[in-house]
């Protein structure tokens, strides 16, 4: 009998294959009390397990294929950091010493505590990081159990013959990054998981590997049996179990068409993005780690429009990166671009994304009524001047190796602008006094707050460029907390107020001679390409995997014709429908 399961579409395309099920991330654990004389040996057993798992992860990193996605190495780094986080290990030791729990029981008890705390987090990305804790604990449990059953079930799945040459679909409750690495050279054509969101590891890696995936499919691993035929519709977020022949043939046709389209788009990678009427459009990449810069250039990006530096600051067991460490990271990324521009955003942390100087059990918001409106982004940096100066010096030092631009997040007050300029001037003086070379960097402001969008004429004289962060701009404009499931459906990029703010920011920036870019999700969504071009946008920054599809839209657009229809879209009660109607007619 054919069954359909619905989840989140996180990586486009169609995948068809036989199901390979791997065990749930939760394992059965022995529970018993340890004699008082054996408490320290039990703690030692825990530490040995941690060291063993650390060695495993480090070995995976050393043996990582050169063509492995950069995200995988970054995710393994996160797991290593969590593995050595004393908050988790110290609390687990406490369970052993005070409650006399065996090591496995103690780990499970601490996992439950941490899981509840992560579930309470308001930030979607941080909530999904709970999977990291679960996966680290699972590996520790495997090491502790020291049995054949403790080996990753996925190894057996990979080695087993599930249909000879037939492609395979991996189905699991969740998939750890370390296991994903082992799938890199496997025959898996797609992924399905019960849990996860658009920023979950399976989603991130699937997109980087360009493999269709559906996550958050709830009961998928229970409904799908080993060796079932499975179709993944990565466009609609649908998983079809044992489809009838006519449906299977339809999806095989779609799969062939998708592969042809993918190959055709791939040929556009290094084609200049120029519209039909001769307007040159800049397609940039958003990156999170230094190693991503090279991959961005290979994907056809003409530079990096957003380097999210907060990843360098988080998951570090309470220790911030030194100036030299930051400098090496920035310099490496700048050099990999070989002269293309690199836009480095200063660290965007705060109440909803705290630094690791806070322990894991402190990553809660009990004392913050609304962390999205709290001490974050540039507000945080200005409250930590020593940290901020350190990052500014590192960025300025990297400017000696290529074209570097500094991007300041969440600017909302002129006083913040003046303080930021003063800190940059101080950083330059310190480098000059120390005889350290730097070339300087253009300064940009992120437009993420309605007040900023309205006050562009006052802000613009202090900056060289503007970058619109549509994700937060939408959230703040509509007073919608995207992490709140009760109102998340009201988060609407097509809302007339959102479009009006974006259009006015682009128009005002262009009129004042300031280059304007969009670096939020809207930039990488081809549905918005034409309306943004009509508004006068000529710089888009997105995930590298989205560049080719957006470029295709650019190449087929005539901005003069699009601009003539912009007001019809902005003044319509239903802008999305109006855009589809008038821009289709303009083609």
Describe the model.
By secondary structure, the protein is of the alpha/beta class. It folds into three domains: 3-22 and 152-247, Phosphohistidine domain (Glucose Oxidase, domain 1, 3-Layer(bba) Sandwich); 36-150, PtsI, HPr-binding domain (Enzyme I, Chain A, domain 2, Orthogonal Bundle), CATH 1.10.274; 272-562, Phosphoenolpyruvate-binding domains (TIM Barrel, Alpha-Beta Barrel). Helices cover 47% and strands 13% of the residues. It has 26 helices and 16 strands. The strands form two sheets. The chain has an eight-stranded mixed β-sheet. The chain has an eight-stranded parallel β-sheet with strand order 15-14-13-12-11-10-9-16. Helix 16 packs across helix 17. The longest helix is centred in the first third of the chain and has 24 residues, at 39-62. The radius of gyration is 25 Å and the shape is globular. The chain starts with a strand and ends with a helix. Mean pLDDT is 84; it is low at 147-164 and 356-366.
